[in-house]
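Model it.
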Amino acid sequence: MATGDRAMAVTTSGTPLVRRLAGVARPSAPAGQPRDVDAWKRLEWVCHAGAYAAVVAATALALRDLGLASEGGVLALVLTGVWLGWFFVGTAGGRFSSPSKSTRLRYFLAGLLLFAGLLVVSPWYFIVAWPLLWESTLVLGVRRSLLLLGLTVLVVGARAAALGAGDRRDWFLEVAPPLLAGTALFLWIRAIIVQSRERRELIDALEATRRELGAKEREAGMLEERQRLAGEIHDTLAQGLVSVVTHLEAAGAALDGAAPPQAGHHLEQAEQVARRSLEEARRVVWALRPKDLEGQGLAEALRRLAAQSSREYSLPVRVEITGEARAQPPEFEVTLLRATQEALSNVGKHAEAREVTITVSYLDGQTILDVQDDGRGFDPREMLGRSPSPDGGIGLQAMRERVARLSGSLSIETEPGRGSTLVVALPLADSSGHR
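Modeled.
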């Protein structure tokens, strides 16, 4: 799998389906942006409303037993009012979520004292333990909150023991079932919360990995594009400018030797090469196919290139096509054309050849390009091992990289005094570029 495929595979980890399977409703926010409100926070008002309802219910049950006009009833109303104010300031005022742990702890301990006073007035106030238990998780954590729940049960049990035998039995029958059910529900919900947070952390890690892979993929794409542009510039502008310089030098030498006709020929060739280089420069900028490939196939483009090179280097260049010609993806045809252009440029400048033959062979599984000359040859190890430099050529190295990106191969068959053959083999591909 290519790097881009890996990045795409990780990207799907951020889709809504995966987030639903992982138990997370929304993805994490990018760095520097606030995270979406958690589902538990969005339902926090329900918990607070339930807490107020529980206190009202406990007060109603306590007043039923104590009487509204009794001393215990009045005390219950006073303590209930104070507790409601404490709970409102803790939730709406943000005391329970204060950044200072000591502030949260002191405020929570004050609520525990109020809760103890309510239990002394009436055991029905055990219901208030549930909102206290929820808020205690913000201050004490889950384990200590469970310990607090156990202590609450003991205090409530001790308070109920002071009732008469009949009342105590009825009270336990009314209190025990919801107490046990509520404890189980609390543990279950807390387990869901912990699991959801773990899954959210997993999603965050996956999204961080996705962003990292995306950044690396962009860097790799930029590097590959720079290499491609370097090859395009070398194959078009650099070669054209070298040819212009060569013709101008030859024209200067002809003028020094008092041979104006030859100078005029070289100046004309330099002008033509400069115009072609200008056209190619515009096409590189617009990322279009070379002009030689527009409206015609590879074979015709090679014949035109052969004719241009023949005029430019005063060298016979033949083109032969074997097998059944078939359309290739643009990148394949451009690569074969650029390889031929590079080879002809090297032959014209260095080989001192008498003839060049370009052969394109369409085989069952691949397309093979051969550019053969009968010049003086060279040592290919010196050419391929040469390091790129700002004032030196990078043609063969850039061409080999370009061919390798298409899963092809480039080789040179040569030895000094016996000419040379450049061989480029590309795998068979359909019009979409699939091999």
